[in-house]
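Quick one:
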Amino acid sequence: MLLYTNALDVSGPTPRVVVDENGQVVFTAWGTKWKQQRAFSLSTAELDALRRLVHELAAMKPLRSYAALDDHHMVMDASYAQMYVRDGRHETAVSVYALEYVLRENAEGMKLRSFESGGPPPQFMRLYDHLKALAETQPPRAQRWTPRQFEVRLRDDLKYLDSPPVKWPKDWPTPNSPSANAHGDHAWNVLLDGSELPQLRRLLPFDESYTAVKIDGKIWAACWRPILPGESGWWNTMMSSRR
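Output:
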């Protein structure tokens, strides 16, 4: 079993909960200044309960997209709540547009669209509620978790930056490094080892927000995120569910 979701956090590309085949849970929590990843292991009973919910969702048709709002509602900057599960050989990715927006506005009378009219399936919502409780509980056994690698995105679009650039360390990869990957026409992704986290946070203190950096005389907009367990297995599939 592998489960990934950002259904509990639509503010950026970092998923809120990842559960691997062995029951290790990695989730995003707010620290005093930034988001941090924490981890703990599920008990046998907890893992069995989660597997039953994953099995329900995995039995659905793969790569489906739903909307929490009726068709006539338009929301600026609403995001997708996304969930990916792999249960044995079955792989399913589900996206729900504007879910968090609707749940936040529920107190003002906005109701979640029914499954029969194109809203999120009950299997998704049962797993969503279970994971939300799991993440919000933040059991005492949870420890800070540092990934093996971080991804830094470097963009040449500087229109949202208003602070002077910080200097990029000479021994860090650059857009010209062999390991760098192009992301569209105006961005590059480079990978840093997990041991660089303290220096990374000093240099770019706000993960998922852009900071100006100077690399070989050129100014870039930079932000970063952790590489999470099993990411290579679910990322492309998850993005396909939003089409």
